[in-house]
Amino acid sequence: MGGIFGIVSSENCVQTLFYGTDYHSHLGTESGGMAVLGAKGFYKTVHSISQAQFKSRFIDDYKKMEGYFGIGAIDDETPQPLIFHSKFGVYAVAAAGLISNKDKLVNELLNEGASFGEMAGGGVNNAEIVACLINRGNNIVEGIASMRGAIEGSICALVLTADGIYAARDKVGRFPLSIGMNKNQKCKSYVVATEASSFENLGYELIQFLGPGEIVLLTPKGIKLMKPEGAEKKVCSFLWIYTGYPSSTYEGISVEGTRERCGIYLAKRDNVQADLVSGIPDSGVGHAIGYAMGSGLPYRRVLVKYTPGYGRSYTPPAQEIRDLVATMKLCAVREVIKGNRIVVCDDSIVRGTQLKNLTVKKLWDNGAKEIHIRPACPPLMFPCIYASSTRTTGELAGRKAIRALEGKEIEDPVEYLDPQSTKHAQMIDWIRHDLNVTSLKYLAIEDMIAAIGLPADQLCLHCWLGK
Ligand code: SF4
Fold it and tell me: Would the pTM of this model clear 0.85, i.e. be above it?
């Protein structure tokens, strides 16, 4: 999905920019970058972070940088921020999200006379497309609004100009942007970020969630509303279930609190006899703690993560690297596993291959008596079309089950979506059998929505319902 961070200050902001951008490292593993505007003008630095983490790649760069406004980005696809010379003057852009009609837009823009550089490995950089679309407007705000209108998918953008930073959330607020204010009154400064959890350790307090489609201009003097929020809101539910950082808050709703509530709902609907509950690190832990709270079972760690040097296993693009990372980073604790009936909570089951071949195997190999898997959301049936996703429809565990049960691909799996239907039960049992576990029970969608706490019509539920 990617993450973006921006800061406006009356003093040199580079250290805050460096650490604030780094606090988005869980949202991408391929590329990182920062751009600043200072007394010497614009400066940017962008590196691949596929072989080394953001901090180690940028530590030397940031010590040489100086500026009072800055933006940064972590991404899986697009090296950014980029700097542009335009009819609006010089500006830098960082954009998080997905442009699903990229080919169409590139052709349109080429026909209008635009030209694009080519990224290493081919393709056009999303930030270049965003900038070309902004340049269609009569001013930056109009340009940002028309850019969002032209894009299918979802883009949140930061535009760094000499006037300040324009911060624009995507049209329906699918992904977050929050604003923080410096607690130190001597140096007035504002930050804006995908992850509000980045603020506190940097000395900022969260003061505002941007609404869907809202555009503001941040300067050291304050926050100026440039375009009010729109009426339609469809916030990504998966932020709370998996993608977001546990200490973060979106729409005023805590990620960790939501995960605990998911676990409590899972426990309330369960009648399994077990000895302990555990979570698959990291994103299954909050759900498992909630399960322990709701069931009274002790929370114990059957798997621990070897943290130094490992990111999330879903983000590297190649499946074999994802599998290798997942194998290496999770270590079994035999003392806790042996002879026990174990409830294992995870955020979700995507393909199921890592869960089956790595986690479940490690638990059986270390003497588990029973394994009861409890994912904190219903079966994923559709790949995300609003953020970069490594999954395809055919890879999803639910779709593999349907293919095996029906003997062919089913375009519209509507009969399998109803949790009361026989077909749904057959699909779950096929996945359980394939995973080689004692039992499998998913969180119901109503419970997931209740755990988040927003009305269903304000949430994106496409992963589960296809709409
Ligand atoms: Fe989030 Fe899924 Fe919607 Fe994508 S499709 S925005 S991951 S809920």
Answer: yes
